Structures are given as C-alpha cells and as structure tokens.
Amino acid sequence: MFSTKIASCRKFSTCTVDYGKRNFRKFLLHNRGPQNHKERQKTNPLPDMLPYDYGVRSTGYMEGDKFVEVPELIPEIIVPDLTDCDLKPYVSYRVSTIDQPEWTARDLFNAVYRSKIENDFNTGKLNADGSAVEPSAEEKLTAEEARIKARQTGCDIYIPKSKGEQEEMFDDYLK
C-alpha cells in the first residue's frame, strides 16, 4: 500500500498570503501588452502611459507631429589620434613615488615672468621705477583683463617648449 504523510506547519503572517502572485498591473510598464496595443500606443498614446526612452537623451523635441532635431544636442565624441604615442596603458606598481613640492605663487611668478625680467635687467630695458620700457602683451593687461583671461576655458599658462627641451625635462623626470 501506498501512504502519504502530510506534515502540517503553522505560519504566522501580518499580511495576506499571496502564494507568489503579485499585481503588476499597477505598474506602468513600457513594453506591456500585445502587438496591437503597442501599435496603438505609437499612433495614439494613452495619456496615463508615459513614453519610455530607455534612458537615452533626446537629440531634439516634438513640435506637433514633427520631430525637430537640434544639432547642439547631438553628442560629439572627440577621440585623439594615439598612433605615435609612446605611453603604455599600464603603470607598474614598482614605480617609485615622485615627491614634488607644493606649487606656490613664487613658483608661478618665476615660471611666467622671471626670464623676461632678467632679460630686461641685463639689457638695460628697465625704467627708474623698475617697469619695462617695452612691455609684453601680458604686462600691458590691467588687473581685470588678466583675471578674465585667466578664467577663460582652456587658458594654459605654460609656455610651449621646443622638442629638445621637452625631451630633456622628460629625461630629468625619469632620473
């Protein structure tokens, strides 16, 4: 004979038992419904069903039934050409740490103005009050003009160096 034992177990719950059933109809899902519903949503959407864009930002806006594309909203991906680049995409953990002193205002002054002041002093192109007889374009700026120029996007203070000077700096850096 075949016998079965039914084990009874007691459950205590403060909510009703759903037995795995959940009501998903209350959630507005973009892909819910048969094919004819999806086609109807494209032509005449229901007001309570929000359009779903999968997180992609739109490149324009709707003007009535027509989509107007805005060129400024189209993303432009700029990728540099790295064919002649000697750098590798890996930095070894055995590289020694480089301790550099903090960049101060005196260092900035020396990097930008020192050579000009030394040249003017050595050639005697300074007035009695210490100002340059032939001031450069940076020396002619007022305080407000210099502040505006310094806060512009892409303004680099560093003077472009020749290829030989860059290689010497790189060699000194590796020592």
Automatic annotation (TrEMBL):
Keyword presence, Calcium: no
GO biological process: translation
Assigned keywords, A-Z: Mitochondrion, Ribonucleoprotein, Ribosomal protein, Transit peptide
Gene Ontology MF term list: structural constituent of ribosome
InterPro entries: Ribosomal_mL41
Pfam family, one: MRP-L27
Recorded GO CC terms: mitochondrial large ribosomal subunit
Coarse class of the protein's main subcellular location: mitochondrion
Family: Belongs to the mitochondrion-specific ribosomal protein mL41 family.
UniProt-recorded name of the protein: 39S ribosomal protein L41, mitochondrial
Lineage: Eukaryota, Metazoa, Ecdysozoa, Arthropoda, Hexapoda
